[in-house]
Amino acid sequence: MKFLGITLLLAACSPGEPSSRLTVAAFNVESGSADPQVIAEKHIAPHRNQVDIWGFSEVESNDWMEKFRQAMRSGWGSDYRWLLGRSGGKDRLGIVYNARRLTYLRHEELEQINPKGSLRSPLVAEFRFRLTGQRFLFVVNHFYRGDEKNAGRRHQQAQLFNEWAQSQNLPIIAVGDYNFDWDIGSQGQKRDLGFDLLTQNEVFRWVQPQQLVSTQCNPEFNSVLDFIFVGGEAKNWPAASDILQPEPEYCSPANRKTHSDHRPIRAVFELVVGQP
């Protein structure tokens, strides 16, 4: 994979050139304590018409998804639609996509990667990028968090997802809250085993942001929990990533009353016209 600076990649193409950018984002919106209207207005609306696909975790209801969709609209020329997984209770997985840029083909939930069936199954959607014709799979994940028992289940999820990806023929973009605790201070020397199980045999690669900040607001940890991984041919796409809302104020006690305790993340891919 060719990694580029996010600013460079955003400026790399101009209208009329035979290439285009696909922009994706992921956000754990923290059902229960966060206010979906605040999240929609302050953290989604500023990126309207800039992100082609959002992958959300901890979505409480259809109403939340509709608020997020409305925040992405900007009048004429926008047509955002959403998908919401069935598993997970009030901590479900969702996708909002720009139907003017992407053709939706199908979606499914990977129930086999939901040990005991007690959490949310990975949500997979197949799209075609209209400009280039490129088909790809977009996956939203939210793996187990917590103690030794849940760590074992998280590792099982990572292993199963790696095995599933090996059987796919399309490029894969897999986003979400993986709870891999990639420690920033040690440059990843300290990290959860799940990261290695997911990426083993180079099945997946992390589109690593150039500037790292903790993607969650717990002051006891300085780590990355939220990732954008790529598999298959997507590993060869020029890409760049960044963590949105990096300022310390994002995690202030005042914000914690209505905001998510996770930062959104974004990646930009360059796809060339004529790709299969």
From TrEMBL:
It comes from Gloeomargarita lithophora Alchichica-D10. The keyword Hydrolase applies. It holds the Pfam family Exo_endo_phos. Keywords: Endonuclease, Exonuclease, Hydrolase, Nuclease. This is Endonuclease/exonuclease/phosphatase family. Residues 27-242 form the Endonuclease/exonuclease/phosphatase domain. The keyword Cytoplasm does not apply. GO terms for molecular function: endonuclease activity; exonuclease activity.
